[in-house]
Every structure is written in C-alpha cells, then in structure tokens.
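Journal club prep, shared notes

We agreed each person brings one worked example of a sequence with its structure written out as tokens. Mine is TetR family transcriptional regulator. I'm keeping it raw so we can talk through how to read the token line rather than staring at a rendered picture. Sequence first:
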Amino acid sequence: MSTEGRPLRADARRNRERILRAARDAFATEGIAIPLDEIARRAGVGPGTVHRHFPTKEALFEAVVREHLERLTHEARGALADTTAGPAFFAFLTKMTAEADAKQDLTEAITGAGGRMSAETEGLAADLRELFDALLTRAQAVGAVRKDVDAADVQAVVVGALVAGRRRGERDRPGRLADMVFDCLLPRGATPEEPG
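Then the structure, token by token:
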C-alpha cells in the first residue's frame, strides 16, 4: 500500500519489494549505519525511488524490523500452542537468538540502538514481549526454567549471548556460547534435556 492508502502499481510494488530485500540483507550484515544510497544501489533503483517508498533510512529500517517482529510473534504463538512447555520455550529462545545473531537490525532493535519506532511497531514489540512472558511463565510452571528470573533477565541473557558470540568469533561453532549462557536459566542440577 502507498502512504495515502491506495494500492501500489505493479512496478511500484516490485520496486518496494526489491528495496526491502536489499535492506534486509544490508541491515542484516552491516546494521543501520549503511547509507541509504548504498541500499538503493543494491536494489537496482535510484535514491529517489527509495525515498518515495521510505522517506528516511529509519522508516526503511523500521519496515524491516516490523517484518521480523511479525514473524517472531507468529512463531511465539506457535510455541505457546506446543504442549511441551520447556522444550517449546528453549526452542523459541534459540530461534530468536539465532535470528538476532544473523541479523544485526534485529539485534539493534532489541538493544535499542535502532532509534524510536512508531506506535504500530512498538505495539508489535509489546505483543511479542507478552507472548514471550507467557512462554517463560509456562516453562517455569513445569520446572523447566528457574523461577527467580523474569523476561527482562532473559532478554539480558540473550543480548549477552549475542555479544559474547561476536567477541569470541565463533563462526566454526555457531550458537555454542548461547547454549552455555542459556544453561543459567535451568533450575540448579537440571540439564537442557531433563529440565526441573
């Protein structure tokens, strides 16, 4: 849709998708610091075309982050439908962390480095936080996660795992440090395979 609410012409819709695809890749590898003109070049369109769809780099960044939030929200709902509360929680946590690790834009959004988001995007983020809190509470209720942590603690653990992985440069063993950090969420004496 256009900013006026009218449907986009087919060529404009294709250009918008090309811009979003190029932005996803660029933000994922380089974060929000990448120049908008470089995204236009990678999309194969002129800077004016990018500006017609996204007036600022922050608006483009937000569109990409919104896509991630929508996908993660959908996956969190699926995890809540899973009858195995502990494994569902850790599977979602692992997926969310792996995606954030692969995509600098999501990491910047999680840590607040991406700038202020619109009310719509903030609403999506709030929905995701509520779903995550429900996943955590459910996992704690069955003894899969220690009871003295909350969702903010887990977010800090996720960010810590991402930073540690990047500093360590664990390309040969991706996710290893995240797995080690997640062990701190288990009740004392438990293992990931046998929670509680």
